[in-house]
Structure prediction request, 113 residues.
Amino acid sequence: QLQASGGGLVQAGGSLRLSCSASGFTLADLSVGWFRQAPGKERDFVAAITRKFGSTVYTDSAKGRFTISRDNAKNTVHLQMNSLKPEDTAVYYCRAWSPGNYWGQGTLVTVSS
Prediction:
């Protein structure tokens, strides 16, 4: 089971750190990613960190502003989001895969202008 947390209301230019915690399995054994879904839009990829080498990949809009990282001691993956923009407003979901495919519940991020 995955649990996403850390969402909230922030002003444009502010920061939030999202957390994705796992129970029942070890996140370090899986690739983990963050996705987001804005109202009326499809769920889109934001960032991921791979299982084997810990390589990271970001969507263009997240590059330079967001950082995905692991805290293996806490069985958690974080998404540090800086310089937030109103267009970052969405429900953010974490996903873990390979092996398996797990989705956490969403956490709402609202960025006011």
Summary: The mean pLDDT is 96. DSSP finds no helices and eleven strands in the chain. The radius of gyration is 13 Å.
